[in-house]
Give the backbone structure.
Amino acid sequence: MGRDEIVVGLDIGTKKVCTVIGELGESDEMEIIGVGTVPSVGVKKGIIVDLEQAIQAVKRSIEKSERMAGTRVNSAFVSIAGSHITSVNSKGVIAISGENPGISEEDIERVMEAAKAGIVSPDRELIHTLSREFVIDGQSGITDPLGMSGARLECKVHIITGSNTAVQNLIRCMEGVGVDIEEIVFGALASSNVVLSDAEKELGALLMDIGAGTTELAIFVEGVLVYSAVLPLGGNHITNDLAIGLKTSLNEAEKIKINYGSAIDNGVSSEGVVDISSLNGEEKYSVPKKYLVEIIEPRVSEICNLVRNEIKRSGYAEMLSAGVTITGGTSLLPGLIEVAEKSFGLPCRLGKPHYEGELAEMVNNPAYSTALGLLSYAEKKLAEGQPHKRASSKLKIKNVFSGIKEASQGVIDWLKDFF
Ligand SMILES: Nc1ncnc2c1ncn2[C@@H]1O[C@H](COP(=O)(O)OP(=O)(O)OP(=O)(O)O)[C@@H](O)[C@H]1O
Ligand SMILES: [Mg+2]
């Protein structure tokens, strides 16, 4: 495991670009030493649509985090989302030579290659090949076959791919910024590291990250990722609906949504009126708060219904015993969890990072799940021995990273080894 190392998570979202710099100390604990969040430009529905604008936004975000951390960023784990992301489960089988003393690293690589064969078409880019389980001579449920003996090795994998264009534009963007990509990571897979517990992943859980332009989904069963998808819908659609319904600007609609928006009529807090500026900003008028619910609820229900269809399509609907964890900025909308529970018929809870350290107040927000999740993902990869491209310059060591506090099913637990 790397010591005194800097790891960087870069979440390029539709609403914001966020860079977090983590410092891995002697005791393998991580401290967040820099956060740089700036408004996103050149990104729509999770995809880069204007390269130059995106480069500038990412540069601003990285520079901001560098100033806070007092260190330079040379490489980063970068998130990817967008509805071009698709996933498929596949398996590969190989024969193990009788002369081998046991299954080797090469055998594992070979069987993973066999599982990938023919899956990725030329217009797609491979993002992840995640092993779900290994089967040796018919014996299933093996997580690490290294050194075991057997004649026939089978590997079941979950493969996530993205469109060539979207992935190449992300790579171009990082080239333009001048920061190396350590790895491109599916956003919801990153988030899952800080908002889902191992116990939930084992039981069967859906992670739903509702941002501004996308809703990312990841289903875990028996501890592994089995289904991933991205819907091109998010909080921006709610803001647009409000702007149209209230005949006001997008900026005003966004403010109204954040300050007074709700997806359910919750009695007292839905009473009264809200003052709204007209489209040209010259007039003010009042609308009942209940009217906001009438605009917001149908859009939230629509998003939840589309997610419900994805759950059905996944084939894992009956296996989500740990329910649904909802994160991303839009999860903060009052009433959203209740609408989701009704739509899915499953227990739903809010998911957010539980970092303990100086910057906790800033980062323990559902909008930071992906960025912090990238750090956690990076830490796991380093622990597994993945080579680190270029460590950052000039480091001091402080060991202040803490565990993640998890609140699920009404039980508060401290998960020391979460990061
Ligand atoms: N308190 C709140 N109530 C309602 N919506 C909120 C609140 N806070 C943030 N949002 C919404 O959350 C969205 C931003 O979330 P987030 O930062 O997770 O998006 P993103 O990661 O940039 O986008 P994406 O993941 O879709 O590419 C915006 O639509 C914003 O209006
Ligand atoms: Mg996001």
User: Anything to note?
Assistant: Residues 13-16, 40, 46, 81, 211-214, 234-236, 239, 254, 257-258, 261, 328-330, 332-333, 367 surround adenosine-5'-triphosphate (ligand 1) (CB under 6 Å).
